[in-house]
Amino acid sequence: MIQKVIRSGLVLLTVLITSFSEEVTPGIQQNAPDSTTVTLLFAGDIMQHGPQIDAAWNKTDSTYNYEPCFRYIKSTVSAADFAIANLEVTLAGKPYTGYPQFSAPDALAAAARDAGFDVLATANNHCCDRGKAGLLRTTRVLDSLSILRTGTFRDSSDFHMHHPLILRKHNITIALLNYTYGTNGLPVYEPTMVNRIDSSLIAAEIKNARQQGADFVIVFMHWGIEYQSHPNKDQQQLAALCHKSGADVVIGSHPHVLQPLEYRQKNDSLQADQLTVYSLGNYVSNQRDRFKDGGAMVQFTLSKSWNQKQVLYPAYHLTWVYTPYEEGKKQYYILPVTTFENDTTIDASSLEKLREFAADSRKLLFSGNNPVPEYKPFSR
């Protein structure tokens, strides 16, 4: 049923970023003729609970298939120059398990890649769920799939190779740093390494990335308190420290619900543009309670010219996880909210919950300081 909806009316992301800027942020300073730009998109927590593993199993050919999960957001994700998400599972091999100690089939990461994700960050509280062997196998699987990664490392050599993760395109160099508050009390066995949140260390590493030639620095934090819709003081203070130390963008994950997004442009008292995203919520999971059943993707543009560097056109895309029963089992689809919130081919109960999530999310994200707008597809 849902496939018919897409074939008959899915609005694809086809607009150039200059047109996008006119729609979402009219009046913002336009790129100088000699500038170059890179577009980035971040998504929240890619989770894998037991029912999701069951849903992906194809008994006909004895394989796991996650393509349907990402099908309806692929056009948006793949449109970005770099798309990044938090991989909150290990790829530790069989037996595949959900909560509380996750090990997902490798096919999950492969499907994320095929949907357009270039980078999966791995520093989170579940990265040691399967011990040293699980952490090692996760890094190796991501490498074998040509997925860029940062946050957890095989050893010190691997650490220096992937931290910070350097992304380059259009003569723009971006340093991505990824940290977690903890590992659920599980030990990190030598020689493996996990980036832990340490404010003085983070400040030094941001400054070092600048000194090493990064045009922009982005920090991806796994932080905060689960299921809280507003950042706590620790998050706020750490975000402020990151920006003060030279980070242009700070992105957050872990609470499994949305938290506010804030955008401040350079002015007389602010030396550079600053984008802060406290939590992007659940990208995909089996958490079905109110506020937990969806999340957001945030996109923005990094612009570089001979005399200035800017963070421009930030906007968010709301996403909601649709879980219909098909062929006798529960399925999982990440849906773009703006496409489906007025679509009556979805069953009435699910549509009501999607609309509830949309209303809750817009109220929350609009109420923050210096809020980021929601993306609206451009049309002539």
Explain the overall architecture.
- The chain is α/β, with parallel strands linked by helices.
- It has a domain at about 40-150 and about 250-365.
- Helix content is about 30%, strand content about 30%.
- Helix 9 runs parallel beside helix 10 (about 235-245).
- It is globular, with a radius of gyration of 20 Å.
Describe what is shown at a glance.
The chain has 380 residues and is of the alpha/beta class. It has twelve helices and 20 strands.
Shape: globular
Helix content: 25-40%
Radius of gyration: 20 Å
Q: What is the typical, i.e. mean, pLDDT?
A: 91
Q: Helical region count?
A: 12
Structural class: alpha/beta
Salient structural properties:
380 residues; single chain; 20 strands; alpha/beta; 29% helix; eight-stranded mixed sheet; 28% strand; globular; six-stranded mixed sheet
Give the arrangement of secondary structure elements.
Layout (H helix, E strand, L loop, with lengths): L1 H8 L7 H8 L11 E11 L3 H7 E2 L4 E2 L2 H4 L3 H6 L2 E6 L18 H9 L4 E3 L9 H14 L3 E3 L1 E2 L2 H7 L2 E5 L2 E9 L12 E2 L4 H13 L4 E7 L10 H13 L3 E5 L4 E7 L9 E7 L1 E3 L9 E11 L4 E14 L2 E2 L2 E2 L2 E4 H4 L7 H19 L14
Parallel strand pairs: 1-4, 1-15, 4-5, 5-6, 9-11, 11-12, 12-14
Antiparallel strand pairs: 1-16, 2-3, 7-10, 8-9, 13-14, 16-17, 17-20, 18-19
Helix pairs in contact: 9-10
